[in-house]
Amino acid sequence: MLAAHALSWRIGEVAIVDEVTFELAAGEFLGMIGPNGAGKTSLFNLITGVRRPSGGRILLGDRDVAALPPYRRARLGLGRTFQASSVFGSLPVRENVRLAVQAYRGGSMRLWRRAAADREVVAAADAALDRVGLAHRGDALAGTLAHGEKRKLEIALLLAGEPRVLLLDEPMAGVSAEDVPELVEVIRSLTGAGRSVLMVEHHMDVILQLADRIAVLHHGALLACDTPQTVMANPTVQEAYLGEQL
Ligand SMILES: Nc1ncnc2c1ncn2[C@@H]1O[C@H](COP(=O)(O)OP(=O)(O)OP(=O)(O)O)[C@@H](O)[C@H]1O
Q1: Ligand 1 pocket residue status of 41, Cβ below 6 Å
Q2: Tell me, what's the pLDDT at 214?
Q3: How far apart are CA 208 and CA 193, in angstroms?
Q4: Atom from ligand 1 closest to the CA of residue 170
């Protein structure tokens, strides 16, 4: 579904992302971990198109997307969580999702089409809110949501683009401990119907609950990419995390 082959990003002589190769199968959940500064965000930026790689290939299906801008990759089914800044805090939650659905589907100038299309857009927005457990908060102003609810809204915005591959960058950041289990279940429900997830997350307990396989980055290179059990037992991985709790 998504694959990177010898993907690299260098600044001068320094390899921030160093010949990373991995594959994400249809319906698979791949967790990505690594100590601070390992290159996780940089790798994400290469995959989404925020940064141009210095070398290597990024395949979405059988198409090399490495040279495509982010919006073209999104059109091909690669979705990443919106940053909080793309949420309109003064608009209701439902309106935020409706706008995202509309932006994805594009508008029609024909009046007779517009009414039907509007109903479809509202229905799609409501379905996305329902999937993340925010249906009851549709009328609330987005700016008033708690952290955990904001993360759910970000996922609903992501679903508005109907992605086949979902990239989640630290979805638990800032979420209070009591809200984590519910968010874990929302994220778990994202795979299925062939959808795949690649998630960077610092909370190992969350990764262990969700991931089919775990990729470990260290100094820009992939140390391991295997089942959670095998990765946790890998002495090189344990060494990379020396001083940090795995
Ligand atoms: N634009 C840039 N210019 C120079 N160095 C950069 C740039 N972006 C990232 N780096 C460096 O690349 C390394 C990897 O950074 P990156 O943010 O990708 O790591 P990370 O694994 O996401 O870290 P964290 O877990 O702390 O978020 C760091 O040493 C960082 O300082």
Answers
A1: yes
A2: 97
A3: 22
A4: 27
